[in-house]
Amino acid sequence: MGRRRVDPTVAALVALTLGGLVLRVVFATQSLNADELSTRWILAGHGLPHVVSTVHTDAEITPPLYFALAWLTTQPGLTPELLRAPSLVAGVLTIPLVYAVGLRSVGRRAGLVAAALTALSPFMVFYSAEARAYALVMALVALSTLALLLAVERRRARWWVLYAVASCLAMYSHYTSAFALAGQLAWVLWAHPAARRPALVANLAAAVAFAPWLPGLRGDLGSQTTKILSALQPFDVHSTVVGLSHWVIGYPYASEGASLRALPGLAALVLLALAIVVAAAGLIARRRSVTRQPSVGLVLVLVLACSLPVGEALASAVGSNVFGTRNLAASWPALALCLGALLTAPRPRLAAGATALGLAAFAIAAVILQRPAFHRPNYRAVAAFIDRRAAPGDSVIDGANLSPVGVPGSMEVSFRRPHRVYSVGRADAKYDPFRFVSLPQPTPVVVRRAAAAARGGRLFVVLVDGLPAARETTNAVPPGFRPVARRTYPGSTRLALTEYAERG
CA angle at residue 248 from 357 to 124, to 5 degrees? Predict the structure, then answer.
């Protein structure tokens, strides 16, 4: 008997999924940062009912599904890796899900190219290793789309049930999925008149199942956190253009050190532009010889790709600002399918050239993303140094705390030993309702208190390297202390650690 041949498409999809897993694992082992610390705070030492009730308050503006899954995965221990496990699993599964959706909407080749783009995308890699709901909502919207395509194709009740369940779970993951789900429903009502009744029934069932969470949704829309996030990324032309460009191929967080020139870099941007030009030219030439209307599958992925950018822009124009790079997550798989369809649309030779250029651009971006400068701030390494060096009476001044107000910072959760930590510029707050308990004390006051507590010992000062606030903290260190060691730690936020000893 001869050996059974392996389908090349299946082999390529397995390779892409494994490659995507490797890229994501690198980020899953990094220090917790920013909103991930809120996830940890909600879960730490609490049972599942307490977790869900906390998420229901204005302590959190995201629905509860990710927190419930993370509560399960962190039962062995509250480590960054276990906190991020639901995102990692969802992010890896999204790669074959994108292919499966593409196979039934824009074709096998386009689906495979889209899966490759999903595996390599900096946006997808980053959020597949984030202890938040973005990777989960992408996977569930992709699963909902796949179930919808199978339902209209095979006309079996079980696919409509899966469509309803996946849609409901997507809403329980992130509210912005509503724009994508509305796009799905509009498409099926237009493209498949015979499926209108089961589609409406499935959506009604999903809405009824989500109805118990509506009071939480109303509270989240009026939360102080929503206003804070709106201030960080305002809804204006500049922020919108930057947000969209970073969503497509850049670093998820736009900053001076993470511009498109840095990631994906000029070479990748040129390659991607060439890929689009070649594909568009080939597509125009082909359309002249073959007059054909766009397939209903292509219309679906176009609707899904545009659903969040357009829906969030309209919602932000008339109400609360919800437009943000990460809030566009649920549309990324459809964006990949649109790019895959465009790159493979011309005749074979031009399609091969355009595809090679596009994949090369994303591959370059994936490689650059692995540089330490794009990793999360390395609080783990800073904490490990202090754990080794600090005596029980020493003080730690934390001037690099990027956690939400009222939530323990990255340094505090990274220590393996207890230390006296004095935070610079930190307000204290309580939740339900959200209110500030105390405003930040002046930096010199905090530094003097830490130095007085460490009399006869050492000061460890952790700062964001190069910021004016860092110089203010350094200048406030009493002259009785002298620096004996200084280290810097690269990352998306560069950390500087200085160890001071008392003179004499």
Answer: 95
Query: CB-side exposure of 203: number of CA atoms within 13 Å?
Result: 18
Pairwise CA distance, residues 392 & 419, whole Å: 7
Q: What does the alpha-carbon distance between residue 396 and residue 462 come to, in Å, rounded to a whole number?
A: 8
| Separation between Cα atoms, residue 145 and residue 152, nearest integer Å | 11
DSSP letter string, 336-378: HHHHHHHHTSS-HHHHHHHHHHHHHHHHHHHHHHTSGGGSPP-
> Alpha-carbon dihedral of residues 333, 335, 339, 344, nearest 10 degrees?
50
Give the whole-angstrom CA distance, residue 258 versus residue 393. 39
Helix, strand, coil proportions of the chain in percent (round to 5)?
Answer: 65, 10, 25
What type of residue sits at position 339? L
Taking only the tens of pLDDT, the chain with its 504 residues reads 456 677 888 999 999 999 999 999 999 999 999 899 999 999 998 899 999 999 998 778 899 999 999 999 999 999 999 999 999 999 999 999 999 999 999 999 999 999 999 999 999 999 999 999 999 999 999 999 999 999 999 999 999 999 999 999 999 999 999 999 999 999 999 999 999 999 999 999 999 999 999 998 888 777 666 666 666 667 888 888 988 999 999 988 876 567 899 999 999 999 999 999 999 999 888 766 554 556 899 999 999 999 999 999 998 888 777 888 999 999 999 999 999 999 999 999 999 999 999 999 999 999 999 999 999 999 999 999 999 999 998 999 999 987 877 788 898 899 999 999 999 988 776 666 566 667 778 999 999 999 999 988 899 999 999 888 888 999 999 999 999 999 999 999 999 999 999 886
Residues sharing a CB contact under 8 Å with residue 201, sequence separation 6 or more, in sequence order: 160
Q: Are strands 458-464 and 395-399 parallel, antiparallel or unpaired?
A: parallel
Which residue in 13, 231, 181 sits closest to 102, CA to CA?
A: 13
Q: What's the pTM value of the predicted model, to 2 decimals?
A: 0.94
Q: Which two tokens stand for residue 40?
A: 């940890």
For tokens 């980053």, the residue is 126
Please state, in angstroms and rounded to a whole number, the distance separating the CA atoms of residues 111 and 29. Answer: 30
Cα distance between the two ends of the chain: 84
Work out the number of other CB atoms within 10 angstroms of the CB of residue 13: 21
* 139 closest CA partner among 170, 172, 105, 162: 170
